[in-house]
Amino acid sequence: MGKKQPRRRHVPFASWTKGFFVLLLLLVIETGWLPGAKTGFYCQDSTIAHKFTGDTISLNVLLGVAFVAPVIAVFSIESGCGLCSGAPDEGPRVLRIWRHTWVWYREYLLGLGMVILATELAKIMVSEPRPHFLHTCKPDAMANGLEHCKLLAADTQGYIAEFNCTNTEVSDYRLRDSIKSFPSGHASVSVFTAYFLICFLQRRMAGLPRKSPSQFLKPWLQCICMTWALLCALSRVNDHRHHAHDVIAGSILGAIFGMITARFFCGDFWPGQCAVRLNQDAGSEGASSGSTAVGSLDERNSNGLKTQHQHPSVRRLLSSTSSYSGSVSADELREVR
Q: How many other C-beta atoms are found inside a 10 Å radius of the C-beta of residue 175?
Protein backbone atom coordinates (compact mmCIF):
# COMPACT_ATOMS: atom_id res chain seq x y z
CA MET A 1 0.00 0.00 0.00
CA GLY A 2 1.25 3.44 -0.91
CA LYS A 3 1.65 6.18 1.59
CA LYS A 4 -1.52 8.20 2.05
CA GLN A 5 -1.17 11.66 0.57
CA PRO A 6 -2.47 14.52 2.71
CA ARG A 7 -5.34 16.44 1.23
CA ARG A 8 -4.51 19.91 0.06
CA ARG A 9 -6.57 22.61 1.72
CA HIS A 10 -7.79 25.64 -0.12
CA VAL A 11 -10.23 28.48 0.19
CA PRO A 12 -12.91 28.28 -2.54
CA PHE A 13 -12.01 30.35 -5.60
CA ALA A 14 -15.38 32.13 -5.45
CA SER A 15 -14.55 33.49 -1.97
CA TRP A 16 -11.27 34.97 -3.14
CA THR A 17 -12.94 36.42 -6.24
CA LYS A 18 -15.67 38.16 -4.25
CA GLY A 19 -13.18 39.50 -1.74
CA PHE A 20 -10.86 40.82 -4.45
CA PHE A 21 -13.76 42.50 -6.25
CA VAL A 22 -14.89 44.25 -3.06
CA LEU A 23 -11.35 45.45 -2.25
CA LEU A 24 -10.87 46.73 -5.80
CA LEU A 25 -14.06 48.79 -5.67
CA LEU A 26 -13.08 50.20 -2.27
CA LEU A 27 -9.69 51.22 -3.67
CA VAL A 28 -11.35 52.99 -6.59
CA ILE A 29 -13.71 54.88 -4.28
CA GLU A 30 -11.18 55.89 -1.62
CA THR A 31 -8.66 57.20 -4.13
CA GLY A 32 -11.25 59.48 -5.71
CA TRP A 33 -11.24 57.75 -9.11
CA LEU A 34 -15.01 57.36 -8.99
CA PRO A 35 -16.58 60.83 -9.19
CA GLY A 36 -19.41 61.59 -6.80
CA ALA A 37 -22.49 63.74 -7.03
CA LYS A 38 -21.94 67.48 -6.90
CA THR A 39 -24.20 69.04 -4.30
CA GLY A 40 -24.33 72.54 -2.92
CA PHE A 41 -25.18 74.11 0.42
CA TYR A 42 -27.25 76.91 1.94
CA CYS A 43 -25.37 79.95 3.19
CA GLN A 44 -27.51 80.24 6.32
CA ASP A 45 -27.42 76.52 7.18
CA SER A 46 -26.18 76.44 10.78
CA THR A 47 -26.05 72.61 10.86
CA ILE A 48 -22.90 72.62 8.69
CA ALA A 49 -21.16 75.50 10.47
CA HIS A 50 -19.65 73.53 13.39
CA LYS A 51 -15.93 73.46 14.02
CA PHE A 52 -13.98 70.29 13.32
CA THR A 53 -12.63 68.98 16.64
CA GLY A 54 -11.46 65.49 15.72
CA ASP A 55 -12.83 62.04 16.46
CA THR A 56 -13.56 60.49 19.83
CA ILE A 57 -13.17 57.09 18.16
CA SER A 58 -10.67 57.34 15.33
CA LEU A 59 -10.89 55.38 12.11
CA ASN A 60 -7.86 53.30 13.11
CA VAL A 61 -9.50 52.29 16.38
CA LEU A 62 -12.77 51.46 14.63
CA LEU A 63 -11.10 49.25 12.01
CA GLY A 64 -8.79 47.72 14.60
CA VAL A 65 -11.75 46.56 16.67
CA ALA A 66 -13.65 45.49 13.54
CA PHE A 67 -10.80 43.24 12.37
CA VAL A 68 -9.26 42.02 15.64
CA ALA A 69 -12.19 41.61 18.07
CA PRO A 70 -14.15 39.09 15.96
CA VAL A 71 -11.17 36.82 15.29
CA ILE A 72 -10.29 36.79 19.01
CA ALA A 73 -13.89 36.09 20.01
CA VAL A 74 -14.41 33.37 17.41
CA PHE A 75 -11.08 31.68 18.20
CA SER A 76 -11.82 31.72 21.94
CA ILE A 77 -15.33 30.32 21.57
CA GLU A 78 -14.28 27.63 19.09
CA SER A 79 -11.41 26.51 21.32
CA GLY A 80 -13.59 26.56 24.42
CA CYS A 81 -16.57 24.73 22.98
CA GLY A 82 -14.58 22.01 21.28
CA LEU A 83 -13.99 20.80 17.74
CA CYS A 84 -16.71 19.56 15.42
CA SER A 85 -16.76 15.94 14.37
CA GLY A 86 -16.59 14.83 10.77
CA ALA A 87 -14.01 17.52 9.97
CA PRO A 88 -10.40 16.97 8.92
CA ASP A 89 -8.35 16.60 12.10
CA GLU A 90 -4.79 16.70 10.80
CA GLY A 91 -2.26 18.90 12.55
CA PRO A 92 -1.89 20.38 16.04
CA ARG A 93 -4.93 21.43 18.02
CA VAL A 94 -4.16 25.14 17.66
CA LEU A 95 -4.04 24.78 13.88
CA ARG A 96 -7.34 22.90 13.85
CA ILE A 97 -8.99 25.57 16.00
CA TRP A 98 -7.74 28.22 13.60
CA ARG A 99 -9.27 26.32 10.67
CA HIS A 100 -12.60 26.31 12.47
CA THR A 101 -12.17 30.01 13.24
CA TRP A 102 -11.44 30.77 9.60
CA VAL A 103 -14.70 29.06 8.58
CA TRP A 104 -16.65 31.93 10.18
CA TYR A 105 -14.09 34.73 10.06
CA ARG A 106 -13.71 34.66 6.28
CA GLU A 107 -17.48 35.09 5.90
CA TYR A 108 -17.32 37.97 8.37
CA LEU A 109 -14.57 39.64 6.36
CA LEU A 110 -16.64 39.35 3.19
CA GLY A 111 -19.64 40.90 4.93
CA LEU A 112 -17.46 43.64 6.42
CA GLY A 113 -16.08 44.51 3.01
CA MET A 114 -19.58 44.63 1.57
CA VAL A 115 -20.97 46.93 4.27
CA ILE A 116 -18.00 49.30 3.88
CA LEU A 117 -18.45 49.27 0.11
CA ALA A 118 -22.19 49.98 0.37
CA THR A 119 -21.51 52.81 2.83
CA GLU A 120 -18.88 54.44 0.63
CA LEU A 121 -21.05 54.14 -2.48
CA ALA A 122 -23.91 55.84 -0.65
CA LYS A 123 -21.57 58.61 0.51
CA ILE A 124 -20.43 59.54 -2.98
CA MET A 125 -23.93 59.21 -4.45
CA VAL A 126 -25.55 61.48 -1.83
CA SER A 127 -22.58 63.81 -1.14
CA GLU A 128 -24.14 65.44 1.91
CA PRO A 129 -22.03 68.11 3.67
CA ARG A 130 -20.81 67.19 7.13
CA PRO A 131 -21.65 69.34 10.18
CA HIS A 132 -18.12 70.83 9.97
CA PHE A 133 -18.25 71.36 6.20
CA LEU A 134 -17.84 75.15 6.23
CA HIS A 135 -14.90 74.97 8.67
CA THR A 136 -13.07 72.25 6.74
CA CYS A 137 -13.82 73.26 3.16
CA LYS A 138 -13.96 77.05 3.50
CA PRO A 139 -15.90 77.46 0.24
CA ASP A 140 -15.06 80.50 -1.85
CA ALA A 141 -18.67 81.70 -1.68
CA MET A 142 -18.23 82.24 2.07
CA ALA A 143 -14.85 83.97 1.82
CA ASN A 144 -16.35 87.43 2.38
CA GLY A 145 -18.87 86.41 5.01
CA LEU A 146 -22.44 85.22 5.25
CA GLU A 147 -24.07 88.35 3.84
CA HIS A 148 -21.92 88.24 0.73
CA CYS A 149 -22.82 84.57 0.29
CA LYS A 150 -26.53 85.40 0.50
CA LEU A 151 -26.02 88.15 -2.07
CA LEU A 152 -24.38 85.73 -4.48
CA ALA A 153 -27.27 83.30 -4.08
CA ALA A 154 -30.09 85.84 -3.97
CA ASP A 155 -31.91 84.16 -6.86
CA THR A 156 -31.74 80.70 -5.25
CA GLN A 157 -32.80 81.63 -1.70
CA GLY A 158 -29.26 81.36 -0.39
CA TYR A 159 -28.39 78.06 -2.09
CA ILE A 160 -24.88 77.80 -3.53
CA ALA A 161 -24.73 75.13 -6.23
CA GLU A 162 -21.19 75.76 -7.49
CA PHE A 163 -18.25 76.33 -5.16
CA ASN A 164 -14.59 75.54 -4.64
CA CYS A 165 -12.87 74.71 -1.37
CA THR A 166 -10.16 77.20 -0.48
CA ASN A 167 -8.70 75.55 2.62
CA THR A 168 -5.08 74.69 1.82
CA GLU A 169 -4.24 73.49 5.33
CA VAL A 170 -5.92 70.10 4.91
CA SER A 171 -5.39 67.27 2.44
CA ASP A 172 -7.49 66.59 -0.64
CA TYR A 173 -8.82 63.50 1.12
CA ARG A 174 -10.14 65.65 3.98
CA LEU A 175 -11.76 68.03 1.51
CA ARG A 176 -13.52 65.17 -0.30
CA ASP A 177 -14.50 63.68 3.04
CA SER A 178 -16.20 66.92 4.12
CA ILE A 179 -19.11 66.14 1.78
CA LYS A 180 -19.46 62.47 2.76
CA SER A 181 -21.75 62.71 5.75
CA PHE A 182 -24.52 60.29 4.72
CA PRO A 183 -24.51 57.56 5.94
CA SER A 184 -22.21 57.18 8.94
CA GLY A 185 -19.42 54.69 8.31
CA HIS A 186 -18.62 54.39 12.01
CA ALA A 187 -22.23 53.46 12.72
CA SER A 188 -22.54 50.94 9.88
CA VAL A 189 -19.25 49.15 10.68
CA SER A 190 -19.72 49.06 14.46
CA VAL A 191 -23.33 47.86 14.24
CA PHE A 192 -22.33 45.21 11.68
CA THR A 193 -19.56 43.93 13.96
CA ALA A 194 -21.82 43.94 17.01
CA TYR A 195 -24.66 42.18 15.16
CA PHE A 196 -22.34 39.45 13.89
CA LEU A 197 -20.75 38.81 17.28
CA ILE A 198 -24.08 38.82 19.14
CA CYS A 199 -25.50 36.22 16.75
CA PHE A 200 -22.31 34.15 16.92
CA LEU A 201 -22.22 34.15 20.72
CA GLN A 202 -25.92 33.32 20.93
CA ARG A 203 -25.61 30.26 18.68
CA ARG A 204 -22.17 28.88 19.47
CA MET A 205 -22.32 29.29 23.25
CA ALA A 206 -25.85 27.93 23.56
CA GLY A 207 -24.67 24.33 23.76
CA LEU A 208 -22.62 24.81 26.91
CA PRO A 209 -23.99 23.39 30.18
CA ARG A 210 -26.71 25.58 31.69
CA LYS A 211 -24.79 26.03 34.94
CA SER A 212 -21.50 26.76 33.20
CA PRO A 213 -19.92 30.14 34.07
CA SER A 214 -19.79 30.82 30.34
CA GLN A 215 -23.59 30.98 30.24
CA PHE A 216 -23.43 33.96 32.60
CA LEU A 217 -20.60 35.46 30.54
CA LYS A 218 -22.53 35.34 27.26
CA PRO A 219 -25.06 38.14 27.96
CA TRP A 220 -22.29 40.37 29.28
CA LEU A 221 -20.25 39.87 26.12
CA GLN A 222 -23.31 40.63 24.04
CA CYS A 223 -23.92 43.74 26.12
CA ILE A 224 -20.35 44.88 25.45
CA CYS A 225 -20.93 44.48 21.72
CA MET A 226 -24.12 46.55 21.89
CA THR A 227 -22.41 49.21 24.00
CA TRP A 228 -19.55 49.49 21.54
CA ALA A 229 -21.93 50.02 18.63
CA LEU A 230 -23.93 52.58 20.60
CA LEU A 231 -20.78 54.45 21.66
CA CYS A 232 -19.48 54.63 18.09
CA ALA A 233 -22.82 55.86 16.76
CA LEU A 234 -23.45 58.52 19.41
CA SER A 235 -19.88 59.82 19.34
CA ARG A 236 -20.30 60.79 15.69
CA VAL A 237 -23.12 63.17 16.55
CA ASN A 238 -21.32 64.51 19.62
CA ASP A 239 -18.14 65.16 17.59
CA HIS A 240 -20.18 67.00 14.93
CA ARG A 241 -18.94 64.53 12.35
CA HIS A 242 -22.42 63.38 11.32
CA HIS A 243 -26.02 64.47 11.50
CA ALA A 244 -28.41 62.33 13.53
CA HIS A 245 -30.10 60.89 10.44
CA ASP A 246 -26.69 59.86 9.08
CA VAL A 247 -26.07 57.74 12.16
CA ILE A 248 -29.54 56.19 12.02
CA ALA A 249 -29.11 55.29 8.35
CA GLY A 250 -25.65 53.85 8.97
CA SER A 251 -26.92 51.74 11.87
CA ILE A 252 -29.74 50.33 9.75
CA LEU A 253 -27.30 49.55 6.94
CA GLY A 254 -24.94 47.76 9.33
CA ALA A 255 -27.79 45.74 10.84
CA ILE A 256 -29.02 44.68 7.39
CA PHE A 257 -25.60 43.46 6.28
CA GLY A 258 -25.04 41.84 9.67
CA MET A 259 -28.26 39.88 9.23
CA ILE A 260 -27.30 38.88 5.67
CA THR A 261 -23.87 37.70 6.79
CA ALA A 262 -25.11 35.74 9.81
CA ARG A 263 -28.18 34.28 8.11
CA PHE A 264 -27.06 33.59 4.55
CA PHE A 265 -23.25 33.57 4.54
CA CYS A 266 -22.91 31.70 7.86
CA GLY A 267 -26.25 29.83 7.85
CA ASP A 268 -27.10 31.06 11.37
CA PHE A 269 -23.91 29.33 12.60
CA TRP A 270 -25.57 25.89 12.51
CA PRO A 271 -23.22 23.49 14.35
CA GLY A 272 -23.11 20.79 11.65
CA GLN A 273 -21.85 23.22 9.02
CA CYS A 274 -18.34 23.23 10.42
CA ALA A 275 -17.50 19.73 9.16
CA VAL A 276 -19.12 20.39 5.80
CA ARG A 277 -17.26 23.65 5.20
CA LEU A 278 -13.90 22.25 6.28
CA ASN A 279 -14.34 19.25 3.99
CA GLN A 280 -15.21 21.65 1.18
CA ASP A 281 -11.96 23.51 1.83
CA ALA A 282 -10.11 20.20 1.79
CA GLY A 283 -11.31 19.58 -1.76
CA SER A 284 -14.61 17.74 -1.38
CA GLU A 285 -17.63 18.69 -3.46
CA GLY A 286 -20.47 20.77 -2.10
CA ALA A 287 -21.96 24.23 -1.96
CA SER A 288 -19.64 26.92 -0.67
CA SER A 289 -22.13 29.57 0.41
CA GLY A 290 -23.63 29.82 3.88
CA SER A 291 -27.17 29.75 2.48
CA THR A 292 -26.70 26.22 1.09
CA ALA A 293 -24.52 24.76 3.81
CA VAL A 294 -27.42 23.26 5.77
CA GLY A 295 -28.74 21.64 2.62
CA SER A 296 -25.29 20.27 1.86
CA LEU A 297 -25.13 18.79 5.37
CA ASP A 298 -28.39 16.93 4.81
CA GLU A 299 -27.21 15.58 1.43
CA ARG A 300 -23.88 14.47 2.76
CA ASN A 301 -25.40 12.69 5.70
CA SER A 302 -27.90 10.84 3.55
CA ASN A 303 -25.19 9.72 1.09
CA GLY A 304 -22.42 9.26 3.62
CA LEU A 305 -19.92 11.88 4.76
CA LYS A 306 -16.40 10.97 3.72
CA THR A 307 -14.86 10.84 7.17
CA GLN A 308 -14.01 8.16 9.66
CA HIS A 309 -17.69 7.90 10.58
CA GLN A 310 -19.45 6.35 7.58
CA HIS A 311 -23.10 7.14 6.84
CA PRO A 312 -23.96 9.06 10.04
CA SER A 313 -27.50 10.33 10.54
CA VAL A 314 -28.15 13.97 11.33
CA ARG A 315 -28.90 13.16 14.96
CA ARG A 316 -25.72 11.12 15.33
CA LEU A 317 -23.57 13.81 13.72
CA LEU A 318 -24.96 16.56 15.93
CA SER A 319 -24.83 14.45 19.08
CA SER A 320 -21.15 13.75 18.49
CA THR A 321 -20.35 17.41 17.97
CA SER A 322 -18.96 18.08 21.45
CA SER A 323 -21.07 20.56 23.37
CA TYR A 324 -22.82 22.14 20.37
CA SER A 325 -25.46 19.45 20.29
CA GLY A 326 -27.00 20.78 23.47
CA SER A 327 -28.34 23.78 21.58
CA VAL A 328 -30.19 21.75 18.93
CA SER A 329 -33.89 21.32 19.57
CA ALA A 330 -36.22 18.68 18.17
CA ASP A 331 -37.79 21.26 15.86
CA GLU A 332 -34.39 22.16 14.43
CA LEU A 333 -33.60 18.49 13.80
CA ARG A 334 -36.87 18.06 11.94
CA GLU A 335 -36.04 21.12 9.80
CA VAL A 336 -32.65 19.69 8.83
CA ARG A 337 -34.25 16.34 7.94
A: 17
